[in-house]
Amino acid sequence: MYVAFENISPSARVWVYQTERLLSSDETAFVGQYLQQQIEQWAAHGAPLLGAFQVIQNRFIIVAADEQQNAASGCSIDASGRWFKELTQHLNVNFFDRSIAYFKGDTIETVEMLKIRGLVTSGEITPETPIVNTLVATVAEFQEKWTLPAGDSWMARYFKQLV
To answer: How far apart are CA 127 and CA 76, in angstroms?
Structure first.
């Protein structure tokens, strides 16, 4: 059962998908229509799941399941992964990008994990640099901590090494 993202419980579980590039407005519209159809039919062991999604900055897709009604099962979580594999094939864009997203002014830049240390050392990424927190686990956490200063995130260890 699909609900608008703003109507799902703050305790709903979330999964974050990140694209390797910005989606066009047509691609974003297609993703929205596709996900709404899939979430309408989403179930765990035959029990309907209450779900929602949100596309952020044409680059990040947040999928949420309200587990107060029915818990998501391994099979239902796998099903949501298949949605993004199908979208990857249809749109020729990777929805499983694991690079780190950070803000450089108003622009979102991405960097491979192995290159973070160099950007920290060069001062490109500082403890104050906002990063996208793709590790959020619930809607409430997403709403409160979607962006964090790099120094307040898992990246803090890189700044400690500089001292």
So the answer is: 38
The token duo for 151 is: 């120094």
User: Rounded to whole angstroms, how far apart are CA atoms 16 and 145?
Assistant: 13
Digit-coded pLDDT (tens) for 6-20: 999 999 999 999 999
Paired sense of beta strands 50-56 and 47-48, if any: unpaired
pLDDT of residue 163: 55
Distance CA 142, CA 125 (A): 22
**HSE, side-chain direction, 13 A CA sphere, residue 125:** 31
- For the whole prediction, is pTM greater than 0.85? yes
Integer Cα distance of 52 and 9 in angstroms: 10
Phi first, then psi, for residue 55 (nearest 5°) are: -100, 130
Strand partners, 66: 50
pLDDT digits (tens, 9 = 90+) for 83-128: 999 999 999 999 999 999 999 988 999 999 999 999 999 999 999 9
CB 133 within 8 A of CB 147: yes
The Cβ of residue 103 has, within 10 Å, a number of other Cβ atoms equal to 15
